[in-house]
Design a protein that fits this description.
Elements (H helix, E strand, L loop, with lengths): L1 E11 L2 E12 L3 E5 L6 H8 L7 E6 L2 E2 L5 H7 E4 L11 H6 L14 H13 L15 H13 L5 E5 L7 H18 L2 E5 L3 H7 L2 E6 L2 E6 L1 H4 L2 H8 L3 E6 L4 E6 L4
Parallel strand pairs: 3-8, 3-9, 6-7, 7-8
Antiparallel strand pairs: 1-2, 1-4, 4-5, 9-10, 11-12
Length: 259
């Protein structure tokens, strides 16, 4: 299974936010979307999920164009972990995860045995089963993020989109979440696309990186190909030192002092 983005453009009224975006991701791969604020990262995720509709181009799961899907079909194919998952009502963790089954639930009959089985399964995978009866607003940030990932997995998606999934988490929980995401991608053969501002963590946990600059793809490839001092200077406007850590094949990006 492949996800192919072919030449999509998107405008906010007369302002072009994305231009000629073209790339491909295969099942089991984790693609990291990086770039400065305003470069189009979140807009790109919203176009893939059809929250925003591209003006031109195609988004294909194998040979099927997502632009022709209805909302239920989109929900069955694409799970989303948003940047901010504020939940104001004290639903239990189990109820929150079960909400991921909504695309499959018969409105007259309610949840069936399979819905409950899938909910149990994804809670086990995300290590949230012990939280099942806890109100969602009484658990920690790291626990809540695992619950939101479980809810997305309950949709049984082919594609998982994550918008800065480690935002506001300490380093321990950042590593925990990213290792979980990679494990899920490989185990379930999902296509995972993740927005990240942390270049070091993105280089460590993503198979490929896509660097956006002013709504266009500036570079795409492995961390070694994308994270060069020249690319970072052009896109972020800063001079940096790059240190490669071979055991994790990741890169530490250190800004130089401003003269």
């Amino acid at each position: 299974m492949n996800l192919t983005i072919k030449g999509i453009d998107f405008y906010y009224e007369s302002i072009k936010a994305l231009e000629n975006i073209t790339f491909e991701v295969k099942e089991g791969e984790v693609l990291g979307i990086i770039g400065p604020n305003g470069s189009g990262k979140t807009t790109l995720l919203k176009c893939i999920n059809m929250v925003l509709r591209p003006k031109v181009g195609a988004i294909l799961i194998d040979d099927k164009n997502i632009l022709e899907f209805d909302r239920k079909e989109i929900a069955k194919n694409i799970g989303v972990v948003p940047q901010n998952s504020t939940i104001h009502f004290p639903f239990t963790v189990f109820d929150i995860v079960l909400m991921g089954r909504m695309p499959y639930v018969d409105k007259l009959k309610g949840e069936c045995c399979r819905d409950l089985e899938i909910t149990e399964e994804v809670m086990k995978i995300t290590n949230t089963k012990h939280l099942a009866s806890r109100p969602i607003n009484e658990i920690s940030g790291g626990e809540k993020q695992r619950v939101v990932i479980a809810r997305a997995l309950a949709q049984e998606p082919k594609i998982l989109l994550l918008d800065e999934p480690t935002l506001h988490l300490d380093i321990n929980h950042q590593i925990e979440i990213l290792e979980l995401v990679v494990e899920i991608a490989k185990r379930k053969k999902l296509i995972v696309i993740m927005v990240s501002h942390d270049l070091g963590l993105a280089s460590r946990y993503c198979d490929k990186l896509l660097l956006l600059h002013e709504g266009r793809i500036y570079s795409v490839g492995t961390a070694a190909e994308v994270l060069t001092t020249e690319n970072i200077k052009k896109v972020y406007g800063i001079d940096t030192y790059l240190i490669h850590h071979p055991p994790t094949n990741s890169y530490l990006v250190i800004p130089k002092a401003v003269e």
